[in-house]
Amino acid sequence: MVKQYETVIGLEVHVELATRTKIFCSCSTEFGGAPNTHTCPVCTGMPGALPVLNRKVVEYAMAIGLAANCDITRICKFDRKNYFYPDNPQNYQISQLYLPIARNGYVEIEVGDIKKKVRIHEMHMEEDAGKLIHDEWDDTSLVDYNRSGVPLVEIVSEPDMRSAEEVIAYLEKLRMMLQYLGASDCKLQEGSMRADVNLSVREAGTQKFGTRTEMKNLNSFKAIARAIDGERNRQIELIEAGRAVIQETRRWDDNKEASYAMRSKEDAQDYRYFPEPDLVPIVISDEWVEKIRARQPEFRTEKLLRYKKEFDIPQYDAEIITGSKHMADIFEEASAICGKPKKVSNWLMVETLRLLKENNMEPEEISFSPENLAKLVELTEREAINSSVAKEVFEKIFADNIDPEVYVEEHGLKMVNDEGALYEALKKVIEDNPQAVADYRGGKEKALGALVGQTMKAMNGKVNPGLVNQKLRELL
Fold first, then answer.
1. What is the pLDDT of residues 203-256, one digit of tens each?
2. Which of 61, 170, 324, 421 has the fewest CB atoms found within 10 Å of its own CB?
3. Where's the Asn/Gln amidotransferase domain (predicted)?
4. Do strands 213-216 and 248-253 pair parallel, antiparallel, or not at all (unpaired)?
5. How far is residue 79's CA from residue 362's CA, in Å, rounded to a whole number?
């Protein structure tokens, strides 16, 4: 009988917070910049430099904790996690072990028709490390400390997930929650959201956990899914061959679709944690918690319920639009300006999604304003431009956020409402296309389409095709 195995997965998700300055100094957190330019004595670990806690980091961490149904620790503190690594300038990281800011929460996920709660063990605040850049030509490694000291929240789940699908559902739910809060942009490609996967397998039906490994270097949801399947299969093969799974940290190589051992997995005692002597404990009052709770945004679930009541758009459209906080904001603001939510939804669902796909962009990268989208809707509604011109104008709005009214005026794209000019164009088209006219009069309806096309061309596309169709039928 073939043995069946169950995968047991827990995640450690690191999220860079959207503060303008670092967690313990006033250096910029902006991504990019020349190496080692967003630095100071504090974030480069110079002797005698002392940390000062950024209040906004605490408020973001509390907001995330509340959104994930956690208990907020009323007195929490920082600890030193000691380890040597070139991108860690102090030879320790300021983190939280003993009294993290939030504990005992959950995030509800949905995979197919099944809903389940993934429990949150804890969330803690900490500082990010710098970044090593490896130069294979010179066989050297250089260190960029711009990222050192960027504030992080680490969200540690319980081992409640059983498949790659559940892991991706959990990460997508977390990402959406964080983006709705404005706490992080969650750009995996820039490292502002990173997940370490703790995975073990066990024989189906048993309660005891197997030996787990931790996988790092996962910078996309697809890579995470592939890494989970790859590591699950590797561990099952070891067990089937009678060999032991070793508790270790492994690096996933997505190009080779394989993982490699990096180091043996550390336990907390290996880091010699002790209370951070340069920072006082944080005392969080009930009033402060309630102030943060009152500022929580309307999350996706509440938005969907409100959209059902307020807007005449299909449920599917509402789900796609609310899947991005940024797109939902554009939809709501544009609808408020023009009063045509269904039309706004159509532009977002069809042309916007098409252009996002073509340009390999995320909805959060949309740069056009709700005002310009609303103006385009109004131009089409009052038939100042036809549908083909509207699409051309929208592409310019998407790319450069141009004012559609100004663009239409400057490029002479307004529809011609001069019936005299249209009549002259129709007469000429009928004269120049006797075969198409004969075909139409002989019952070939398709021939009318050719005549409409010729008329549109003669009018430079600046006329309503419906009007052309109507007038042609009358003349013929």
1. 988 989 999 999 987 888 999 999 999 999 999 999 999 999 999 999 988 888
2. 421
3. 329-476
4. parallel
5. 37
Residue 186 has pLDDT above 60, yes or no: yes
- Please state, in angstroms and as integers, the Cα–Cα distance from residue 406 to each residue in 372, 376, 379, 393, 413, following that order: 10, 11, 11, 11, 10
Q: DSSP 3-state assignment of 436? A: helix
How many CA atoms, within 13 angstroms, populate the side-chain half-sphere of residue 228?
A: 24
Which of the residue ranges 37-46, 189-198, 379-388, 443-452 has the most confident prediction, judged by mean pLDDT? 37-46
Distant-in-sequence, close-in-space partners of 409: CB < 8 Å, separation ≥ 6:
none
C-alpha of 337 from chain center: 26
Alpha carbon dihedral 104, 107, 111, 113, in 10-degree steps, equals 90
pTM of the model: 0.83
Domains contained in the chain, CATH given: 5-288 (no CATH), 298-410 (no CATH), 419-475 (1.10.10.410)
